[in-house]
Amino acid sequence: MHVLLATSELNPYSKTGGLADMVSALSRALAGSNLQVSVITPLYRGMAQAHPAIEATSWRLAIPLGDGLVEGRFHCQKLSPNLTFWFVEQAGFFDRPGIYTEANRDYADNAARFIFLSRAALILARHLPNPPTVLHCHDWQTGMIPILARHAQWHAGWAQPPQTVFTIHNLAFQGSFPAASWGLTGLPSDWLHLESALHFERVNFLKAGLTQAQAITTVSPNYAREILTPEYGCGLDGLLLKRYNDLSGILNGVDYEEWNSASDPALPSGFSAHDLSGKAMCKAALQRELGLPEDAEVPLFANISRLTDQKGSALILQTIRALIDAGESFQFALLGSGERALENAFGDLAQRFPNQVAARIGFDPALSHRIEAGADFYLMPSRFEPCGLNQLYSLRYGAIPIVRATGGLQDSVIDPRDNAAQATGIKFTTYSAAALQKAVLKALALWKEPAWLQHIRHNGMTADFSWEKQAAEYVSLYESVCRE
Q: Which of 92, 347, 447, 448 lies at a C-alpha separation of 20 to 30 Å from 298?
C-alpha cells in the first residue's frame, strides 16, 4: 500500500502548531511499518536553504486557477526507501514571511494558495510511477482534495483515484472564503451546494473534506464525540452526525526519538523514570536560565502555548495572580505568543513578581524541551483541545499535567479519582479560573507527599503514546477504505 499525506506544514521544515508534528511523526511511523509513504507540502521561504537535502526536480507544474495559469515546480527529499517528502515551489504563493498570516492578518489569497497545493497533490498522486492507493488530507488547507479527486474520476478520465481520508486537527479553523473563490477550483458552478462545500453562502474548505472524503478522522476519540454536539461542532455538528459511521478518533502519538528525556540534546542532563537525578539538574538549570531563584523545594509550574482563549491563557493568568496574592510558594514559567493583550499581561506579571514568574514571549523549540524537563507540573486548562501534544511530552518528561477534561486531554491523562493505581495527572471539568485554581492547590498538596508524587510521575513517564502504536490504527483505517 502506498499512502500520500497532504499537509500545509511539516516538522522540521515548517510549523505553527501540532499539525506539523503529527504529520511528520505519522509519516515516519507508517514508513517504519513497511508502507510506502509520500508527503506533499509547500516549499516555504528559507526551507531549501535550511535543508540542503531538499533537491529541485525537473517536474514543473502549470495549474489553472480561475482565468490564470500558475506555474510551480516539485522538489523532493527521499528520507528512506519507504519515505519521500515532496515540496511544491511557487514563489508568489509560498515565498513569504508567514505560512498563513502576516502582521496577525490572514493572507488575502489563502484560498488560491491552498487550492494550488490541493491540485498539485492530485497531479503528484496521478503521475507518480507508483500511484498512492490512499490520499490522506490534513485540515482545511487540503479539504478541497477529495472533491477535486471525485471530479477528476468522473470527468477527467482518472479511472482509479486514491481513496481519500480527511483528518480534522481543529474544527474551529475551517477555511471559509467568499463564494466567488469557487471559480479558482476549476469545478463546475453546480458542484457548489450544501452537500459539498457551501456553508452560509461561502466556500468552506473543511466542509468540502467532510462531505467528500471516504473516511473522516480526528485526533482523539473524545474529540470525535465532542464535535457531534452544538457546543464543540462549530456549526458542522449536523453534518458530522450524518457521517457518524465514517468518523473515528485516533489519539495522536509522540515521537519518542525527538522527545527522549534520556538523550535529548537540548537538556543539560538526561534522566529517565528510573533515575530522576538528571531532572533535578534540569530544574536548577532552567531556574537559572529564566532568572528564577534556584530552589529545589519550590514546585515549578509551566505552560508552553499559543496565548489564546482556546488554550485557557487568561485562566492561567488569573490563577497565578490569585495564588501569589494568597501567599502560596511556587514558581511559574511561560513560553508562548499570541494575543497581544495576553503577551503583555504575562510580561507585566513577570516584571512584578520576578522571583515567582518568568515569561518568554516567542517560539523556541529547544527552550520548550528544557521547560518540560525542568517543570514539576504542566498547566493545560484548554477550553477545547482536539488532542494536545504538550501533555504527552509532559508525561514523558516528568512534568505532571494539570488539564481540563476535554478532547484528547480527557483521553490521555488519568486522574487519581478515576484510577489511583494508574494516575498520571490532575483533571478538572469546569472552564473557569476557580476550577483551575482548585486543581493547582491539589498539585501543591501533592508536592508535599513525595511518595505519592513519585508514583504519579512514574506512571506518566512510563505511559506508552508511541506513534508505532497509533499508526497501526491508521493502517487498519486505510485497509478498510480500500476494501470499500
A: 347
